[in-house]
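chain below, 279 aa
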Amino acid sequence: MNVTAVRPFQPGQYYVLDGGFSTQLAKYVTGVDEDPLWTARSLVKDRDSVVRVHRDFLANGARVILTNSYQVSKDSFEEHLGLNEKETFAAMVDSVKLAWRAVEEEGGVPGHVLVGGSVGPYGACQHDGSEYTGDYLVGGGAVSQEKLVDWHKHRVEALQEGGVSFIAVETMPAIREAMAVLDCVSQAGMLSAWVSFTLKDELTLAGGETVEEAVRAVMRHKLAKQGRLVAVGVNCSAPGVVEGALKVARKVAGKLPFVVYPNSGEVWHGGERGWSGEG
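prediction:
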């Protein structure tokens, strides 16, 4: 059976993304970087500030905003907020509703403005910086593929239920976690997705695989074959390595659009919960 998906992005247009959610949220909420839940705590404790951050980006020209769901997980919300699985699912749904509330309050038009459902890596919820290394995916204690799919499944389902325009699979340090999330998107319904990886250098993902291997794997996924892969790219990577990585990716990605949102150039240290270097 041929499957046709509605593409949220119009061809031939550039879309301005929002900025770093934690950086902007820190203007309104103290202790964001030190919090084991990072920005996700505000979904429960300070919803108005979440909307305020979204509105800040929209007011400055963003046409794509991402939900504040990057670091939401069943385990972390139970440990740090005492919420059960159903309540955590509801918080993920609410992350979408808060984003659309911001669009409405800023006078945005759904379709012209898009809300992407942010799905961050497993490592981000370990609060140890391992999303920038992919260490949890290798060695004797590696997280299994089955567990990755199970771990991401409820997140994707909640974002779909909330009504996102597409799923933003972001900060992936390695191919197999990106594949796990795309499998979840494929199983959940008919949403489209983009995939962005985090880099070690121009040629290599944070987890050690090559950019070429990663893009090729994504392009071979059935989501891409169904026309539901809307972009591929990089995020949370040093600005100096982005151009080279995109040149490599273009050789494999054909005409597929790129999505790019680098970091400030500083380096995050998970153990110390802080940044070093110059932005």
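The chain has ten helices and eight strands. The CA atoms of residues 266 and 278 lie 6 Å apart.
thats it, cya
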